[in-house]
Amino acid sequence: MSGSDALRRFMFEDFPVRGEIVRMDQSWRAALERQHYPPAVRAVLGEAMAAVVLLASTLKFDGSLTLQIQGEGDLHLLVAQCGSNLAVRGLAKWKGEDPRGSLAELTGGGRLAITIERNKDGERYQGIVLASGDSLAGCLETYFAQSEQLPTRIWLAANGHSAAGMLLQQLPGRAASGEDADGWQRAGILADTVSADELLGIDAVELLRRLFHEEDLRLADRREVVFRCSCTRQRVESALRLLGRAELSELLSAEGRIEVRCEFCNQGYALDTVDVEQLLADEGLLPQASDQLH
């Protein structure tokens, strides 16, 4: 694990603003090993994966956060998902050899959905905004303004080697007499000076020191970020069971086996006739005894 694959949370001591900064090197490159993305698509996917790490790190329960963009443009599907354990994965689907443009142009003015799911009971919450802005960061700021009603600023960057992001959020209910009322505005102005190269190339602690050297920050312990897919053979088999005997038999007759490949991690799963029969037996979908006698 690369030492830079980590998230750091921080708090301004003198005014009610919290922040997070993430940098992914090895984990981002692991995602790129699964698929060759055109530069513009790669940039948005990297930014999305950095963003979901920032957002998922605030989950107070065992669960996951998924960012999904769908549209009619060349970039017609993007999914980035991160668990509360900071295991992240992502994929994108596009048309054409080298799509270009702003986020709105790439997606054809699609929709951006944020879905939060609790693992224990499957409870889900979803918020949706238009992917009509120039950047993913701008769309996410709109999402927070509309869905969460929390003043939030986000900076994102990605290239072929690293993906990174930073978030600032004004905390409700912490204002007290004597606290710096201009702190939120000042923190945003200082953070706006950060460049993509700095986000991608400078250690998080050093970057925070450069940006906010006149402020008192409280820095939390680092949390490691990893690329990890949640696909398993058991999940694949559960999905195949839903197809039923007739469709599974048709798939088997074509190739003699059923092959399923995870789009997130490119892991392949193969089932032959014996595997499928066992699968159906476990589900109680074997032919009736009368059918076996003929």
Please describe what this structure looks like.
The protein is of the alpha+beta class and 294 residues long. It folds into 2 domains: 6-227, Hsp33 domain (3-Layer(bab) Sandwich); 233-286, HSP33 redox switch-like (CBS domain Like). It contains 11 helices and 14 strands. It has helices at residues 26-32, 39-56, 103-107, 136-148, 183-191, 196-201, 204-211, 233-241, 244-255, 273-282, 289-292, and strands spanning 6-12, 17-24, 63-70, 75-83, 87-94, 111-118, 124-130, 152-158, 163-170, 217-219, 223-224, 226-227, 257-261, 268-272. Strands 1, 2, 8, 9, 10 and 11 form a 6-stranded antiparallel sheet that branches. 34% of the residues are buried. The model is unreliable at 285-294 (pLDDT under 50).
Summary of the model, kept short:
This protein is of the alpha+beta class.
State Rg.
23 Å
Q: What is the string of SSEs from the N terminus onward? A: EEHHEEEHEEHEEHHHEEEHHEEHH
What would CATH call the class of the largest domain?
Answer: Alpha Beta
**Judging from the principal axes of the Cα atoms, what is the shape?**
elongated
- Low-pLDDT stretches are 285-294
Helical proportion, percent range: 25-40%
Number of helical elements: 11
Query: Strand share of the residues?
Result: 25-35%
- Given the helix and strand composition, which structural class is it? alpha+beta
CATH architecture of the largest domain: 3-Layer(bab) Sandwich
CATH fold-level topology of the largest domain: Hsp33 domain
Compute the number of structural domains: 2
Fourth-level CATH superfamily of the largest domain:
Hsp33 domain
Number of strands: 14
The whole-number mean of residue pLDDT values reads: 87
Q: Give the biggest beta sheet.
A: 6 strands, antiparallel
Distance between the termini: 59 Å
